[in-house]
Amino acid sequence: MSLPEGELAGGCNCRAVRYRLAPGMRLPPYACQCTDCQTRTGSAFSEHMLFAEQDITLEGPVKAGTMVQPSGAVSTIHGCEKCLARIYATNDRNPGFGSLRCGTLDDSAKLEIKAHFWVASKQPWIILSPEAKAHQTQPDTSQGWVAFLTGPE
Ligand SMILES: [Zn+2]
Ligand SMILES: [Zn+2]
């Protein structure tokens, strides 16, 4: 089954939760190499893409969990109640937007990472291309994020 132009689809590991992401406001996907992402994913880094929360349609048993970040911001993770795969997160400092866990996309290999954040805590065996857009930590403001992700290579 083919998707409408610009629409993305994905889901959890056990397929109890499926989602569609309609075309809309999205920022380019990025990799985060921070130690929090390493712990939360049990992996070396995470892949995120900011989107307008109104564009996502989920089906299945979605469960939410919250975490207070060091900044005091409350992050809410939405994932599958059965297999605990995480689909996306929201943040009370950035209402109306979600951060997709890009590896849950059916065609995740088609997404091109536009930047790497928290390269200072990157695993040493990961070698970034010299052309990769890399930030030692992360921009301080939302405007800084947008500028870094959408600015010139
Ligand atoms: Zn599941
Ligand atoms: Zn991170």
Folded structure, characterized:
The protein has 153 residues and is mainly beta. The protein contains two helices and ten strands, in the order E-E-E-H-E-E-E-E-E-E-E-H. Strand 7 and strand 8 form a beta hairpin. The protein is globular and about 40 Å long. One zinc ion binds next to loops.
CATH architecture label name: Alpha-Beta Complex
| CA-atom Rg in angstroms | 15 Å
Q: Which ligands appear in the coordinates?
A: zinc ion
Q: What is the C-level CATH assignment?
A: Alpha Beta
In helices, the fraction of residues equals: 10-25%
- Let me know the largest β-sheet: 7 strands, mixed
What is the CA–CA distance across the termini?
A: 35 Å
Content of β-strand: 25-35%
Total helical segments: 2
Q: Structural class given helices, strands, pairing?
A: mainly beta
Mean pLDDT: 93
The unreliable regions are none
* Approximate shape: globular
Strand runs, count? 10
List keywords for this structure.
153 residues, glutathione-dependent formaldehyde- activating enzyme (gfa), seven-stranded mixed beta sheet, three-stranded antiparallel beta sheet, binds zinc ion
